[in-house]
Design brief:
single chain; 511 residues; alpha/beta; 9-stranded mixed sheet; 6-stranded parallel sheet
């Protein structure tokens, strides 16, 4: 059964609000017969209807899928876990020709292949590293009609060998999943995403649908530019709000320590998103050691995942995480798109993601089963350095940091506003966000306790001496290095000071 908690009744088509109701019709009968589902959500119905009507118009015009006048193009923005896959799977079973779905990462391609096979499809996967025998088998299945569904990434579709073969088959519908990658990756480390428009020109499909979970005006502009070559296309926007997710943000200095404490307090399974490959590995080791010393039997429940792992390692970790109710996965964004584990209860961002879109995409891994879940964003003084390094996306990162530091406005409303979505004034009555529950704080979590320590011990300790004292006595189990780092931050920000005079030289006091 689809998740009713993710079913907004209000959708927007070309900036016009529409309220859609359920109705028994041939589409409902088809989804019952082919997928065993009892209904379609309103936005699913709208997307699917647009695809089928465009396909029918082409057939009526000339009986082929080559008439440019009736190209069916649309951008679809639906929240994570809202059933977007059905929006192209059902049409794939009802129209002639091949459906090609472009995915950004191999783990997502593998996961989608598994899900398609479960739904009765016989998909083929085009990716790098395949030998001649594998490719020959793929082309044979497509040419003979054994398969009508291709999974691929943009890089492989740009190769000459693949294009030669693709000329021999008829692609009716091209789907670009996670289309926001055009904006977030295309102009940096995935230039192939800037060539999707040329791929579409080569394939010349009548039906093109770009899906994303979140997209602000700048991202939509990039999608329109690089995928649809700047022409105006239909837009369908489902409410991006996820009412079953409670949002909060916490300031901290020692991020690994903050992650440790949050995992103790919140439900699992959990994902902790980090910004780098080494960061995921260091955090996983740190958490294993900490929980082992604390007497918690979590050692085998913590693993890391990133794009640098081998295919076999990724597959093994994906299976482990998918079937584990107590798992904690430390991951980069490589696990952040489309991998469907429904029961993730907690998503923690150790590091600030590059944009609001990325944050909502990754936090949306939580609660795909509709049950209450939590999304926690950590922030701190070192995020300002990230802003300086990422000048191209400065405003987008700054907007997310401002969201984290804002303790006056509902976080749910703030996120919707950053996406330029009018979400109204309704919020969940319970567990909306830390602001609504009056638990938000602009302070970094370590500040208050350290300042209070020096308030009680003015001019008693140097930074080195205080770090030893705090490491030995604190109930939160700081190491000496962690305590020294916090003290150093408070000195640099002027909240405590080192005495320069002779009498208490190098001792610390309160300003």
């Amino acid at each position: 059964m689809q998740n009713a908690a993710c079913a907004p009744y209000i959708v927007m088509e070309n900036n016009e609000k529409k309220e859609l109701l359920y109705d028994e019709d041939p589409l409902t009968e088809a989804v019952k017969r082919l997928f065993g589902l009892s209904y379609l959500f309103p936005y699913q119905r709208l997307v699917i209807t647009n695809i089928l009507e465009a396909a029918q118009a082409v057939k009526e015009k000339g009986g082929t899928y080559t008439d440019r006048e009736f190209l069916g193009k649309q951008i679809v923005i639906l929240p994570t876990g809202a059933g977007k896959s059905l929006c192209f799977q059902l049409p794939a079973m009802l129209i002639n020709g091949i459906t090609l779905v472009i995915y950004p990462i191999l783990s997502l391609m593998a996961d989608q292949k598994r899900r398609l096979e479960k739904s009765g499809f016989n998909p083929v996967v085009l990716r790098g590293g395949q030998n001649k025998e594998e490719r020959d088998e793929i082309w044979e299945k497509l040419k003979t009609g054994q398969s009508g569904f291709i999974i691929a990434n943009p890089e492989v579709l740009l190769t000459k060998q693949v294009q030669v073969q693709m000329e021999k088959i008829k692609v009716s519908h091209v789907v670009i999943d996670e289309a926001h990658c055009v904006s977030e990756w295309g102009e940096s480390f995935r230039p192939s995403y800037l060539e999707i428009g040329s791929i579409l020109s080569f394939l010349d499909p009548p039906l093109v649908t770009a899906f994303t979970a979140t997209a602000s005006a700048p991202v939509l502009e990039k999608i329109g530019k690089y995928i649809f070559n700047g022409i105006q296309v239909n837009q369908i926007v489902g409410n991006p709000d996820r009412p079953n997710i409670s949002y909060c943000a916490k300031g901290c200095i020692n991020r690994n320590l903050a992650v440790r404490d949050l995992l103790i307090k919140n439900s699992r399974p959990a994902i902790v998103f980090c910004s780098s490959h080494p960061g995921t590995e260091r955090l996983a080791r740190y958490l294993r050691n900490e929980f082992d010393e604390m007497g918690k039997s979590w050692y085998n429940e913590i693993r890391f995942y990133h794009a640098g792992l081998s295919k076999e390692e990724k597959t093994q970790i994906e299976k482990w995480f998918f079937n584990n109710k107590e798992a904690v996965l430390c991951s980069t964004c490589a696990y952040g798109m489309g991998v469907d584990k429904a029961d993730i209860r907690t998503v923690i961002h150790r590091d600030c993601p590059p944009s609001v879109e990325a944050y909502l995409q990754e936090s949306g891994r939580a609660g795909r089963d509709g049950e209450h879940s939590k999304a926690i964003l950590l922030f701190g003084h070192d995020d300002e350095k990230i802003v300086e390094r990422c000048k191209a996306d400065n405003s987008r990162i700054t907007a997310l940091l401002n969201y984290a530091k804002n303790i006056k406005n509902c976080r749910r409303h703030s996120l919707l506003e950053l996406l330029n979505f009018d979400g109204g004034n309704e919020v969940p009555q319970d567990n909306c966000c830390d602001v609504c529950m009056q638990k938000a704080s602009v302070l970094l979590r370590e500040e208050e306790s350290i300042i209070e320590f020096f308030r009680k011990n003015k001019r008693c300790f140097t930074q080195y001496e205080a770090a030893i004292m705090l490491a030995e006595s604190t109930i939160v189990r700081w190491s000496q290095e962690e305590a020294s780092r916090v003290i150093g931050y408070l000195i640099n920000t002027g909240k405590i000071k080192v005495i320069k005079g002779f009498l208490w030289k190098n001792k610390i006091t309160i300003n």
